[in-house]
Specification:
binds adenosine-5'-diphosphate; six-stranded mixed beta sheet; binds magnesium ion; 240 residues; Rossmann fold
Length: 240
């Protein structure tokens, strides 16, 4: 039986009068790549930031590799890698200096920086300043940062947002290559990403899960022939 790496139990988040995440429940196991799919404003980033420990839930529990991250925040940090949305990078640092710095913060050895640069295929730009990199390379550096601690749970918030088709393909290949030992959660509003990269889909709308399962299960349940049709019938963008 694959191990349960992530359990989200009745998680809610209110920002003053906005209910951004409403009673979300789901579990994710080792070996799964899960798409947190939803339109803009659905609550994807809010949910990811709570799992990553950057935001605390208004209510509910988040269990990472068997422990509640509210009680064991350090355990959470050790077991989670996070690529936040449009991850801010330190523009005037070189790729290597940035990763060395992040490795030091995490208590990782410098040799780990060489390993993640190899995995993310950014060795050739190691000495280049971050601000001089293309968006595709910047995303790869962010990805390299997220796997520094070789985390069990990897959270990637719109990892291919703003990239051209070739760059998207590269990042998706990297994610697939991360292997079966992790549990990867990707937030996206891209249907093809959910369909082709992920083995399970959690569809979020206005802070609530409105559908969940494999693509085949979802199509069957909602009697639709494409994920696009399911998306149109179950979601709408907030504030538009
Ligand atoms: P997504 O990532 O799916 O686009 P978000 O999690 O960013 O969605 O946002 C969910 C909802 O919460 C939106 O209505 C958004 O406007 C609101 N929201 C997000 N962050 C804040 C914040 N810091 N303060 C107030 N409202 C917020
Ligand atoms: Mg977002």
């Amino acid at each position: 039986m694959p191990k349960e790496f992530l359990k989200i139990k009745k998680v809610c988040k209110n920002y003053e009068n906005i209910e951004a995440v409403k009673e979300v429940n789901f579990t994710a196991k080792q070996g799964e790549i899960i798409a947190l799919l939803g339109p803009n404003g659905a609550g994807k980033s809010t949910l990811m930031n709570m799992v990553a420990g950057y935001l605390s839930p208004t209510s509910g529990d988040i269990i990472v590799c068997g422990k509640d991250i509210r009680q064991f925040p350090l355990w959470g940090k050790e077991n989670i890698g996070f690529l936040s949305e449009g991850a801010p990078l330190y523009a005037d640092l070189s790729v290597r200096a940035f990763l060395n710095y992040m490795a030091e913060l995490r208590g990782e050895k410098k040799s780990r920086v060489d390993e993640v640069m190899k995995i993310a295929k950014i060795e050739q730009v190691a000495e280049q300043k971050l601000e001089t990199l293309s968006k595709g390379y910047q995303r790869r550096v962010g990805f390299a940062q997220s796997i520094l601690g070789n985390p069990n749970v990897l959270l990637l918030d719109e990892p291919t947002d703003g990239l051209d088709p070739n760059q998207k393909k590269h990042i998706r290949a990297l994610i697939k290559d991360m292997g079966e030992d992790k549990c990867i959660v990707i937030s996206t509003h891209l249907l093809e990403e959910a369909e082709n990269l992920c083995n399970r889909i959690v569809l979020l709308n206005k802070g609530r899960i409105v559908a969940e399962g494999t693509l085949a299960e979802i199509l069957k349940k909602y009697k639709k022939s494409s994920l696009e049709d399911v998306f149109y019938s179950l979601t709408e963008s907030k504030g538009e």
